[in-house]
Amino acid sequence: MNLFLTVIAAVCALLALAGAAYFGLCVWAARRFVRKGRTVGDFAPPVSLLKSLKGLDPLMYAAFRSHCLQDYPEYELMFGVSDPDDPALELVLRLQQEFPRRAVRVVPCPDSLGLNGKISALAQVLPHARYEHILINDSDIVAGPDYLRRVMREFAGENIGMVTTLYRGLAGKSLPSKLEALGLSTDFMGGVLVAREMEGGVRFALGATIATTKSVLRTIGGLEALVDHLGDDYELGARTAAAGYEVELADAVVETALPDYTWREFWAHQMRWARNVRDRRRAQYFGLIVTFGLAWGILAVLAAPLVWWTWAAFAVIAVLRMAAAIAIGRNVLADPDVLGNLWLLPLRDFAALAVWLASFFGNEIEWRGLKFRVRDGKLERV
After folding, report:
1. Which of 18, 114, 148, 358 is buried most, with the most CB atoms less than 10 Å from its CB?
2. What is the rounded average pLDDT of the residues 79-83?
3. Residue among 94, 107, 95, 43 nearest 68 (CA)
4. Which residues, in sequence order, are CB contacts of 314 under 8 Å at separation 6+?
5. What average pLDDT does range 221-249 have in this prediction?
6. Burial class (CB in 10 A: 0-12, 13-18, 19+), 364
């Protein structure tokens, strides 16, 4: 056998086995999260829900509507909009007509405070919020009727400064959309759960849910401090943890509707996420090399198909990759599509590996049709 190919096979097999160990950790972390006790009591303070509007998203009205169907005693729903002609405003008007008894308000946000339009709008909405407790989530988030109760009761705990939640993707019809949803349910959320165990808690937040208080926001510098940051959700959680507060992961799971990505759109979206994570969590980003274990196992077999140990490494990683996908996607996230899409895992892992490798060459991203550079978490216009 060619010595070079043998060395390549050995390296890939070792990476595959490291990946198997990682996915074993994912299974363990998923079981730990499922078994974690619920917060005692029914703490339900009044809360202001803040959303920034920018164009239309898939299933957007269903997302808005789910927030008006909450089984919660007192809350308001606030939409910040920069463009008075934004088409999403028609959906808000429809929402107000369907739920006249709900406190649903639109707040004009005429100022551009920075390159992150979402945070710029939210910073202008926040002073109009009636309540001390604040919940920020994306405009495409669909939540169950007990969402607010599950999130806000976490504040009954000691020194809780922020609460966030896991989420699953509702895929469109295109293959890239299915791959992103599969990655969320079997890969990304597994990383969140492992980080929660290995770091002794959550040290970041996810954009699906950022619940906090006005006083905590003032302590960490306010939303205005993040108007030029790309990963505002990560920054809010990291700054809250750095200020000495606990960031809690609630036992609620929400859903986000994914568009029918083209391959180009999929690549741009994945690259934006990858380069931001590489910029803010460099050590952890290098560690992602083991999360492509299934791809490494396949490459090991292709490099040396006639030796037993490449097939053994492939078998081990294949079993643990699928076990982690089921433990996270089905048992934690209750994703109804994860089992039917397990056959896409090899393609998903090779796509993720390609994005990871490409992300090291440069720091440019594309966001909402514009190009930026990411440096120290901040956006710079190209």
Report:
1. 148
2. 96
3. 95
4. 16, 297, 298, 300, 301
5. 95
6. middle
Domains of the chain as residue ranges with CATH: 3-33+278-365 (no CATH), 39-272 (3.90.550.10)
Q: Is 192 helix (H, G, I), strand (E, B) or coil?
A: helix
pLDDT digits (tens, 9 = 90+) for 49-59: 999 999 988 89
Q: How confident is the model at residue 194 (pLDDT cuts 50, 70, 90)?
A: very high
Residue 310 DSSP symbol: H
Between helix 189-198 and helix 3-35 the angle, nearest 10°, is: 70
Mean pLDDT, to the nearest integer, of 205-215?
A: 96
Higher pLDDT, 382 or 237: 237
Say if CB 268 and CB 366 are below 8 A apart. Answer: yes
- Is residue 170's pLDDT more than 60? yes
Residue 106, helix vs strand vs coil: strand
148: tokens are 């607010």
